[in-house]
Amino acid sequence: MMNIQRRFRILVMGAAFGLALATGQGHGGVQAERALAAVRELIDSGQIAPETVLHLVVKQGNIASFLGRGQTLQKEWERTTGILIDPRVMPQEDALEFLASESQTDLTIARAHEYPDLVHEGLIADLTPLFERFGFVLSEGREDGYILAQNQATFAGRIVAVPADGDVTILYLRKDLIDDVENQKRFREKYGKALSVPATWSEYQELIEFFHRPEAGFYGALEQREPSTGWMFWLSRYASQAVPNQYLFDEQMRPLINSPRGIAATKSYLATLPFSPPEILDPGNGYTFTLPLFMQGKGFSTIITIAGAKLFNLETSKIRGKFIAVPMPGEEIDNRVIRRPAMIYGNNIVIPKDSNHQVLAFLYAMWLTDPDVYRKMVGVPGGFADPFRLNHFHDQRIIDAYTPEALAVFRDELEITVPPGTGLPGEAKYIAALRQNLESAARGEISAEVAMQRTERAWDSITDAYGRDNQLRVWKAFRQQYPGVRSAALQRIGF
Predict the structure, then answer these.
(1) Closest Cα partner for 407 from 337, 492, 305?
(2) What is the 3-state secondary structure (H, E, C) of 92-136?
(3) Tens digit of pLDDT for each residue in 124-181?
(4) What is this structure's pTM?
(5) Preceding amide of 244 cis, omega within 30
(6) % helix, strand, coil for the chain, step of 5
(7) Alpha-helical segments (H) within 315-372
(8) Model pLDDT for residues 315-362, shown as the tens digit of each residue
(9) Which domains does the chain possess?
């Protein structure tokens, strides 16, 4: 009986697939239709069995976006193709740790800074041949192109991920407190200038000190400082210390962090701690700790991705209509402010190298991230998949969810965003050394100077262990992803 029922289900799904392709209804744009046609061809040729199951493993914050509201996207794919999706929630651990021990996954997510190690360890597939085989491109210069595609999808000139999340740092402030007449008066009396949005890190520091009221349970800064993610909020401070960027290494692969600029960035990073909640350094107190506090009206500022605007704009948020999204602060150099937002988090789709269904998994990823299909994902309340295509800026559902003001800041920051991490094999080791020393400095165990000295020594040792010549070759390629000259692709669409 079960075999008959399954065969009947497959026949029904297959008929629906053929009808959908014939009518062009119920799906997305050209990318989605091309992916569906390729799936149909693989099934018809016997390369894929219709009852095949794809095992999708993503984090809790992404599951709603990947499946759609009420599992509508999952149901649409299954109804159209006959290919079932088995969704699971992955542990809260790095992709490297997860994939090294997991063998029953066809698609999962990884942060862009994790790609070098995932490739070096042979854990994820090179998708370049599949892009070429099926005629897909990582377009940036079209209205529906990807946002920062090279940063989000490539390593060493190869495509290793499908972009599915746009995570660039944005500063959020309490606008109602800035606009308050009494606050404006007190600020002018204390600092001799108007109370306004900060342009530089020092101006930001003044604001968080001014608004800090711990006796009332209100904090000036709600930036993450917990050991595993705090370093991400150091990176923007560091990269903005020079024109066009303060790089992590020089052209001979020597670390540049143990320098006056590196130490200044670290001191700026540490300076927020007295104006943060006492638990800010506790392990695990990342955005799940800071964002609820900001939403509850218990802090003046926070730094997070565009996802913050979506959360703060919820009807349940106590600061709805009271917050403002503004560009990241920077450093004033030669009478200009150098701002360098950073890519943090970012959950893009990768395909494990040991997947039994790499081709099918790739086609599913391309269907899911179609410009039209994915708009349904980005707009899902509670989902943490954020705008990652340019057409998302013009979708009214997305505009309503994230607010036009926050999306405008996000759009304007793209040109000056620095790529994530070091971009090198051994990324986890490089970042672990930085994290450890930033944490020691944050706890008052060592100075900012010692933190950068120790990190420099550790980084040199890691570079030697992985081979200095090879690391230099990879670093030179990664440097090309840093902001400098305005992107020609962004120019063509008027950004």
Answers:
(1) 305
(2) CCCHHHHHHHCCCCCEEEECHHHHHHHHHCCCECCCHHHHHHHCC
(3) 999 999 999 999 998 876 678 889 998 999 999 999 999 988 889 999 999 999 999 9
(4) 0.90
(5) yes
(6) 50, 15, 35
(7) 358-368
(8) 999 999 999 999 999 999 999 999 999 999 888 999 999 999 999 999
(9) 2-163+348-383 (3.40.190.10), 170-339+481-492 (3.40.190.10)
